Task: structure prediction
Amino acid sequence: MTIKQIDGATSRDGDGGARDARELRRDVDEVMAATFVTDVHTHLYAPQFGELALRGIDELLNYHYLIAELFRASSVTPEAFWQLNRPAQTDLIWQKLFVEQTPLSEATRGVIAVLSTLGLDTGATDLREAREYFRAQHAADYLEQVLKLARVSDIVMTNDPLDEIEARVWESGVEIDARFHAALRLDRILNGWSDAVPKMSAQGYQVQVEIDERTISETRRFLNDWIARMKPLYLGVSLPDDFAYPEETPRARLLRDAVLPTCREHDLSLALMIGVKRRVNPALRVAGDGVGRADVSVAARLCAENTGVRFLATFLSRENQHELCVAARKFSNLMPFGCWWFLNNTSIISEITRERFEMLGTSFIPQHSDARVLDQLIYKWAHTRLVIADALYDSYAGLLRDGRAVTRSEIERDVAKLFSGNFRQWVGLDETQKVVPGVIVQMA
Ligand code: RAT
Ligand code: ZN
Result:
């Protein structure tokens, strides 16, 4: 191995090692661009879910991130907007956000990146060409193409057992495209128990609003049945900024007596997505949710009291990110993931990812796409890769200044962990390894 002096630092050569800062940068960029992702949280659906599997220009533009921006860029009222039919809504969003103003926001730039990647006119004054293009695509081929362009190998869906359209697909027993994995979402049960009760009853479970022993055992039976049907990689729930535990609420009772025991029994992680203030502006409907700073110590306590359960955790408030890193340093059954929703912007991903490298090394999951429309994978992962490449390069450069160079194969190992390995190991996706808090066990 030759040792060279670079900017006052030494660098390793040989076995493909990065020999100087420029080569290190090139290696990071190449590995970052080539590594396939397991997208740990999306709202995408496998083709078997039919109408729920969204793609194309009208869906792309009807994204709730863009709907919220429309009301800032025009005098259109939410009431008037919701009365329009879908193509008219889409035309309006295109006109106001892309024609009459420069599409600078993350969500608008995303649409531009998708159109440009697909070779479509990004400066068009109407959507004729784009609509024709998407109409001409064959669904299965297009899915292949998008996954290849985004370099995504696996997609984790968000699956609601109380959604009637979705439930019908699961109950049909149809074989789901193996690249799509389920995540059993508990929002309706944990955040709206009184509305969930009639729906669970309609599925044959004897539950009641006043939670008693029978309701708990029936909820566990419900979860067991849906776990058998969906084979989820984890159970998940989004939670408000004022989420507390323990407390005298149906949510806390159901968590303690039904959800956590189910996680233990099935060796399934629980994903906590904390900090959303639902419907702060109800007129905006799906675009009307906001954010609030949450109490990270609640998640830490859950980890401390349930050492046999693994938790995935993401917080919506930027202000919670440092505390999440500290909590993860204390609890090996806590895996921070993603820069969620309002945090999925270049400046904030950069800050959070750098903080995580500094405090957690490579033991976290830097991002998920949260894509709702297939095509969004193209821009969300392109944008993410660029930011994470910068953060990773700077970390390696710092390491180099401290006297240790990284080899190409170390970069490959690190990026593979960040983009897929850490998650797959956490949830046992490859079934060869599963993380047990504090230890890694090889499965037989
Ligand atoms: O980012 C989003 O699309 C949000 O609307 C939510 O779906 C959020 O990600 C969630 O999973 O609740
Ligand atoms: Zn989501």
Notes: Confidence is low (pLDDT under 50) at residues 1-11. The two ends are 39 Å apart (CA to CA).
